[in-house]
Amino acid sequence: MLERIPAYTDAMLDEAGTLSDRVYRHLADRLIAGRFAPGDKLSLRAVSEALGLSIMPVREAVSRLAAEGALEVAPKKAVTVPLMRAAQFRDITQVRVEIEGFAAALACKANSPESLARIEAREREFRELSEQPQADLAQAVAANQAFHFAVYRAAGSAELLAIIERLWLRVGPIINLDLRENPERLRLGGAVQAHRACLSAIRENRPDAAREAIAADISGASAFILSRQRLLD
Amino acid sequence: MLERIPAYTDAMLDEAGTLSDRVYRHLADRLIAGRFAPGDKLSLRAVSEALGLSIMPVREAVSRLAAEGALEVAPKKAVTVPLMRAAQFRDITQVRVEIEGFAAALACKANSPESLARIEAREREFRELSEQPQADLAQAVAANQAFHFAVYRAAGSAELLAIIERLWLRVGPIINLDLRENPERLRLGGAVQAHRACLSAIRENRPDAAREAIAADISGASAFILSRQRLLD
DNA sequence: GGAAGCTAACTGTGATCACAGATTGCGGCA
DNA sequence: TGCCGCAATCTGTGATCACAGTTAGCTTCC
């Protein structure tokens, strides 16, 4: 059965594409949003029953997510959300700094009024959320994600966006687990500050500054998580 | 049936992991090596029969490759090797320049005697192959790939390597199709020159130069392919 | 009371069958 | 001779069944 994620039945599927596609999106969204924690187990049969399907579409969806490293499937054993070693997390952080930083710099150059407006809106939403004394963590995670992807989308590169999505698929469970256990980090405002710096860099067309801001945001969160020693090794 | 790739039966599978895994590696290797051309169709049943399996493992393998964009599968239609638009190719090239360039720079910093020796060996093999008047194209493609991945492997980042592999999965069919139609490009020596520059940059610990060399190699090949107008749009 | 061992339930993997939509090629008509 | 249309075949999708290895819980014995 599903561990730590009992409320699975409330989940409905979108209505686009094949059943496999829908299950894939369903699981991927939950992974990025941090609805799963590292080490969580799920079973093909349990998921398929909860969703009212046969296990076939679930199999394909899980298989794809496993190919992307978002899930781990060992033969004859339950599917698990991967645990991550500190070294691996450092590695992925370094890659994220480079790639997401690049996307931010591109977003600067491609700067259009519409995408700038979208980024501003997301920045404001996240800032207002973190200023609340009792912020809803799930909302905050979603708002943070929305801001980042507004920036990355503004870069105008579908390839880059797909790569970044896959990276978030991997780090989603970890970042969320961290924030859930350390809600005070939200109030420290490191993220808010980085977002603001990124926004003004994009406004003023300074690609290097935008890259730096995103890099600082990612590195800051990563350093905090690593300092908490919740990862293997 | 398989178009343009009649000799499918000669292919054997490796012996590791589940059947799905083996089929995946089998198809992925052939995609990277350029054994498929854009637009090629393949059928789950044809592949499974050629490999002597049921269609289940093939389904899963194809499903994973489709998730990575290496294959396209439209419901009720044959699986195809994706055609690529010029704009998309430009996009992917820009991403490759950034990411593979970054990997080359990392390889510089991580510089170990063993990996340097491996890179040198691959550089020599590719150079000698291109100097031959009647070079075997398939061999040359493989040698080029071997050189690049020797560099990327030296970067010491598993995450980066996985991302780059996925990128090559996408561009493999196109690069190979190009080289097959323009074998003279090999003799022009742009690649040989870039490889040599990259190698000495790594030897002399100059990350920016290594990045530049890889970027020049990728951009050069990309510009040539785009100039040939074989892509859509 | 506690630990070891066995059994029953659960795991993913693979094969086979059924189905609906797409494709293709052949036959007939103009 | 050339084109249109129908039918047989091929496509991926999904469900169900069988199987072998894993896991976990219960019983039994010390």
Provide a descriptive summary of the structure in words.
- The structure is a homodimer of 233-residue chains.
- With 233 residues, chain A is mainly alpha-helical.
- Chain A has two domains: 19-80, Winged helix-like DNA-binding domain superfamily/Winged helix DNA-binding domain (Arc Repressor Mutant, subunit A), CATH 1.10.10.10; 86-227, GntR ligand-binding domain-like (Four Helix Bundle (Hemerythrin (Met), subunit A)), CATH 1.20.120.
- Chain A has ten helices and two strands, in the order αβααβααααααα.
- Chain A has helices at 19-32, 44-51, 55-67, 86-110, 113-131, 137-154, 158-181, 184-188, 190-203, 207-227; strands at residues 41-42, 79-80.
- In chain A, strands 1-2 form a two-stranded antiparallel ribbon.
- In chain A, α5 (113-131) runs antiparallel to α6 (137-154).
- Chain A is globular.
- The model of chain A is unreliable at 1-11 (pLDDT under 50).
- Chain A binds chain B through residues 17-18, 20, 24, 59-60, 63-64, 66-69, 75, 88, 91-92, 94-95, 98-99, 102, 157-160, 162-163, 166, and chain B through 18, 20, 24, 59-60, 63-64, 66-69, 75, 88, 91-92, 94-95, 98-99, 102, 157-160, 162-163, 166.
What is this structure, in a nutshell?
2 copies of one chain form a homodimer. With 233 residues, the first copy, chain A, is mostly helical.
